[in-house]
Write a structure and sequence with these properties.
By secondary structure, the chain is α/β, with parallel strands linked by helices. Helix content is 32%, strand content 23%. The protein folds into 3 domains: 2-38 and 80-125 and 248-316, FAD/NAD(P)-binding domain, CATH 3.50.50.60; 141-245, 3-Layer(bba) Sandwich (FAD/NAD(P)-binding domain); 328-459, Enolase-like, domain 1 (2-Layer Sandwich), CATH 3.30.390.
């Protein structure tokens, strides 16, 4: 039997960070991975999708775009494969792990023992229970980037980040794209105005957007086209269908239930904020936990799990996951970025909060480059003692702009450090930059700026 200080099951973002942190702490570490190291993000998620978006935005054709996708994958994968990990002292064992006891797993006939296991098995593409969908063999993010020719026409089921991003990319590459979303708007987790901006942007690129259109039946036709029927509107036909309705946690099939680890009905492994499962010595991180399914969140979870598994300090007080300052972004054009609370959430938690809203039409950089369809929204809540003195504290921000995914980190830092909003307003920003929009919005908490001032959240909530 092989023994290690830490065994990591899964070599995606969460598993890689966990293994590297454990090794940094001088622990012996092995990653057990059924498939290439790097996981979804490198091969079927973040890397290929952003490479495709960039190639489409640059006006490249489909063949060149896919070449750039595969080149990006290969370049990044080479930095995290078994050879690269071996240089860091991390072993990699290919194969499928199955728990035999809380302290042992079997990998294709080899027994591996440890007092500490970190499960990072990720998630798989979710196929909603729509009659005919499975039989139609739709594309998912796991097969989309294996296409060898441009789909003449494409239906995308799901108006979340993946659906919106791929709708814009394939429309720009030349496909006729129809985007179908069951909710009443795209990106339903974002501010309604953000949804509206993205809908307009997709329409400009030729995407037909159908919202409030729950799919009821999928049919594969004799000519190999696919037809989707919805609760409202005419049926839609296309040569290809992409299911982009989310990810299903992959917690089943590893013997976890048999040793007492809870796996819920979705296939997720419930954990507390220290990433611990309900069995001592077993932690879970990343998409398999069913929490925020982002690469950067998985990485943070991996660090927390490895630190709690090995740190003596953690035995007294474990490190915990706090997502209150965790940003995320949808990389459409313009980008939609968010951190903290939405206006609606803040209205429930902080009824005395103030909201600053700055359309990009007031930002000189946006005017100069003719990209004024977007905005910055900042939500500031009163402090316990000083209330709104110095602007209070930032609790949420949404930024829709060409570089929104970059701008959001200034707001994330403000939330993370609990700084007074006044610090954002006082900090000198280079002119004319996109980031000046953050400063201009923050100035609204102290009086009129560009003809605008912050409003009580109750007034904003009532208006929306």
């Amino acid at each position: 039997m092989k023994r290690y200080d830490v065994v990591v099951i899964g070599g995606g973002a969460g598993g890689l960070v966990a293994a590297k942190e454990a090794r940094r702490r001088k622990a012996s570490v092995v990653i057990v991975q059924d498939g290439p190291i790097g996981g979804d993000c490198t091969f079927t998620g973040c890397v290929p999708s952003k490479a495709l978006l960039a190639a489409a935005a640059a006006g490249h054709g489909f063949d060149e775009a896919m070449h750039r996708v595969h080149d990006a994958i290969a370049t990044i994968a080479a930095t995290e494969d078994a050879v690269a990990l071996a240089r860091d002292g991390i072993d990699v064992i290919p194969g499928y792990a199955r728990f035999r006891t809380p302290g042992t797993i079997d990998v294709d006939g080899t027994t591996i023992g440890s007092a500490r296991f970190i499960v990072a098995t990720g998630a798989s593409a979710l196929l909603p229970a729509i009659p005919g969908l499975r039989d139609a063999a739709p594309l998912t993010n796991e097969t989309l980037f294996q296409l060898d020719r441009l789909p003449p026409s494409l239906i995308i089921l799901g108006g979340g980040p993946v659906g919106c991003e791929m709708a814009q990319a394939f429309a720009r590459l030349g496909s006729t794209v129809t985007l179908v979303e069951a909710a009443e708007r795209l990106l339903p987790r974002e501010e309604p105005e953000a949804s509206a901006v993205v809908a307009r942007a997709l329409a400009r690129d030729g995407v037909s957007v159908r919202v409030g259109a729950r799919a009821t039946l999928v049919e594969r036709l004799e000519d190999r086209h696919v037809r989707v029927r919805t609760e409202a509107g005419e049926p839609i036909s296309a040569t290809h269908l992409l299911a982009a309705a989310g990810r299903a946690p992959a917690g089943r099939g590893f013997g976890l239930e048999e040793i007492g680890v809870t796996v819920d009905g979705r296939g997720a492994i419930p954990v507390d904020d220290t990433m611990a499962t309900d069995v001592d010595g077993i932690w879970a991180v990343g998409d398999v936990t069913g929490r925020l399914q982002f690469t950067h969140v998985a990485g943070r979870m991996g660090w927390i799990a490895a630190t709690n598994a090995l740190s003596k300090l953690a035995r007294i007080r474990g490190f915990r996951l706090d997502t209150s300052a965790t940003p995320w972004a949808t990389f459409t054009s313009p980008e939609v970025a968010h951190v903290g609370l939405t206006v609606a959430d803040a209205a429930r938690r902080h009824p005395d909060a103030m909201v600053a809203h700055l359309p990009l039409s007031h930002v000189d950089r946006a005017i100069a480059v003719d990209a004024t369809d977007g905005f910055v929204t900042l939500v500031a809540a009163p402090r316990r003692v000083t209330r709104h003195l110095a602007g209070g504290r930032l609790v949420g921000a949404t930024i829709v702009a060409p570089t929104g995914g970059e701008l959001v980190h200034e707001a994330a830092l403000a939330i993370q450090t609990g700084m007074f909003v006044g610090r954002l307003a006082q900090t000198v920003h280079a002119y004319p930059t996109w980031s000046m929009a953050i400063q201009q919005a923050a100035l609204q908490f102290f009086g009129e700026s560009a003809g605008l001032r912050a409003r009580p959240i109750r007034d904003v909530d009532a208006a929306s």
